[in-house]
Design brief:
heterodimer, A: about 220 residues, alpha+beta, 60s Ribosomal Protein L30, Chain: A, 4-stranded mixed sheet, about 60% helix, rod-shaped, disordered N terminus, B: about 290 residues, mainly beta, Neuraminidase, 5-stranded antiparallel sheet, 4-stranded antiparallel sheet, 1 helix, 25 strands, about 0% helix
Chain lengths: ~220, ~290
Amino acid sequence: MTIKILLVTGLIAVCVGCSSKTKMNADIEQRDLFDGSDRRSFEQSAELVEGSEVASEAELRAQQDELKREFEREEQRLLEERAKLDAENAEKQEAMQRETDIKERLTQNDSLLSQRSIFYDFDSSVIKQEYRPLVEAHGNFLKQYPSVRIRIEGNCDDRGSREYNLALGQSRAEQLKQALVRIGARQDQIDVVSYGAERPFAFGIDSDSRSKNRRSDLIYID
Amino acid sequence: MIYEKLTGDKGIFRTKIAYVIRAKDQSTLVIADSDGHNPREVFSTNEPILSPRWSPDGSQIAFVSFANRKAAVHVVPVDYERSRVTGKPKIIGPYPGSNSAPSWSPDGKSLAIAISKDGKSNIFIVSLEDQTKRQITNNRWINTEPSFSSDGRNIVFTSDRTGRPQIYQTAVQAVSEVRLTYEGRYNASPQFSPKDDFVALIHYDERKFNVGTLDMKSGVVQILTNGSLDQSPSISPNGKVIVYASEANGRGILRFVSKNGRAKLRYVGPKGDDIREPSWGPFIKD
């Protein structure tokens, strides 16, 4: 930046005494400024404008003003560039921090967010009262981090019709999605699928195994 | 053979059944003789398979499996006589949402399927020629398991619009939904008999799931089985025997029951295979 300011200042100094016909160029380079041939062309130009001194002084001032403005514009542009870079860096840092926060909060073992399954009564997709805090924690988390995506997988136990269970699992997952959306999650953050009774978590045929299979799982997608 | 014993009828001896063998990470579609024997494994996948259904002429099987975590209806061409597939399964659609529960129209040109989307499941008829779809049911509940009547005019299906699954019937051309079952907490998996005179179903009475029939004239439900987890009934093409999935020692097996409930048989797979989802094929033309 310092070099650029020096450059522009030098340009102004050299051009005091140039004619209106001297072509100004802000992008002119240092070696051109102090090149002998150029200096000669300035002198020749000065001879040409003799006799119209008043006009040329006004013109010179105008040129100087123009150069100053150009200098100011350049400075402004550089400032803006720097500000933009700073903002980008801050944003990157923030995103990294956010990423770290998300990871940290999702890997905390004892938090509500670490609980990713809710369980149902037979042939029901009603979210039981006891799961309200869990649903609220996930809903608020999704609301706070709109970039986070999840998939809800609805499941059923092996009793009854397989096809009806496929639809019931879909209904369980969809109702959980709508509960999260009511808290503040966005629709497009949540994908919903059903495996019906086809992907049991527990393989027993006792009531304990079955109650484990009537569930919706919240899967956070990397 | 065993069907003569069951029904005194030779008619279904040469028919086939399809069923699914489920292993931990693999499902296999099997075509076997109508008593379950001589199984031939015709298609395997890592995804679950359910609801195989023979086309009316026995030249294709529709079934449900999963693609990108969503249920999708597949159709595979088969050689009925030789118990084998003659091509690769093709996905019908897929239409947005979960696609399942295929039922062939009697002319074999379309399938009634259930499409689950945005928290509701409705029945559509999709054309196999141009994949266009026509909506049959239209409400925010579960409507699934359509089954065409043999004349193609009506569809019976399962719906939970009262809060619990029950059997309903609608005309195909004009929507006119009628509830058919009132007894029991849970009635599902309806299938029209070949003469449309009864519907096979599963019935739950708070203790166990059993296979029964719903008489279409009287509306009476008759329970035919006494297992605890009987499901997926499929009727023989002569309407006299029902095959269904049951359990023995924690494994899926097939059981057969005559329509009057008197004769019973079972088929246990070799090597303790976990068997499910039987579907009875049509008569073959000689």
